[in-house]
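retry 2 of 3: previous attempt timed out while embedding inosinic acid. Reduced batch size to 1 and resubmitted. Inputs unchanged:
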Amino acid sequence: MPGTVVVGVQWGDEGKGKVIDFLAERADVVVRFQGGPNAGHTVQVGSDVFKFRLLPSGMLRAETLNVIGNGVVVDPTVLEKEIAGIRARGFPATNLRISERAHVIMPYHRTLDGLEERMKGGLAAGTTLRGIGPCYEDKAGRFGIRIIDLIDEVVLREKLEAIVPIKQRVIEAFGGTERLSVDALFDEYREHGARMREYVVDTSSLLDAELASGREVLFEGAQGTHLCIDHGIYPYGTSSDCVAGFAAVGAGVGPARIDRVVGVTKAYTTRVGAGPFPSELPGEIGERIRQRGQEFGTVTSRPRRTGWLDLVMLRYSKRVNGLTGLAVTKLDTLGGLPKVNVCEAYEARGEKVEEFPASMRLLAACQPVYREFDGWPDLGPGEWRRIAEHGYDALPVEARDYLAHVAEAVGVPVQIVGIGKGREDTLEA
Ligand code: IMP
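retry 2 succeeded.
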């Protein structure tokens, strides 16, 4: 498997960090290829919990190279804090590389994120307010500042002098009061450049050499297919391409290098932010899943909306990503429910809807068509751990029936199952 992409197949928060960390044992390199500090990837080793926003999820394995690719938007303040955080916990971070071509989130991007959200009214996505959208807007508009610019004082000053007056006018036009200073930004970001310099390389060349020498590369997706700018619930998703095909673009490698695509899904569905959610459970069961699954945003702490597993979403994700396998996480969270549902299709305006609609108006009208399964017992962490030690066949029969149906309905095998928080609580089917 020279190139494996791991992507979320729902609305983010599927447990990709844990799956990446698990697969990273057999990989030589882990690469983030899109998104930025809107991500919150949790990796738990023993009782130690790490929450990564920009660092790739292989950072805790010293022998694994970790790359932040050109498709990522980097907030240096967040990244430096993360690096300092893992160093303080005994991980030297010498295994990190950052692309020269990645774009930089500037303070005015964060300001504009809030102002744009306010202006958008009903079109607001409920963003993480981390400046992600405005940074990608600048990348496409050719107003962007890249990592390489932070280590070239001439270019940095030239760009700031051209860009800052424009941003100042936009902030004011959007009703903001913040005053930007070219000199202050120059000093601050030049210093960020000096601090990050040791990690900055041409990551495309690096990855090319790694792949050419047969090393195994894991491409770590952030957010999820249904938040993707092209394939997600536009305009309520994020501003980057979150699907597997973008791994090649955002890492700077050819698509033929990728031969495996693992889609990560929870055993149920969650969503942070606005937009239609056909299988949402606003009542007691939804609240039980929220509490048991600790469904609160890693980045924003917002309570996540919860619902049954939606197979319409997953079938769509299989197609647009070309999935070769599924990883199903948090199966333990559903334990103790007498019955568990999956959404097989939708009904809207008197008709059956089997394809995930592009129209948000149609999606909002969609009612779920459920298929009911017997639930599995409410086991304690010790019992789930014992199952993890014994392997897939030790899972309760009801849980295996549920997973078998998911695999059949989506049309890809379930290869990995998560039944607890730790690295050890993972099964291979
Ligand atoms: P943005 O990415 O901060 O612009 O937010 C756009 C939408 O994507 C919002 O609805 C966010 O809640 C959602 N979003 C962004 N990143 C994540 C993530 O990592 N997990 C879950 N939702 C996310």
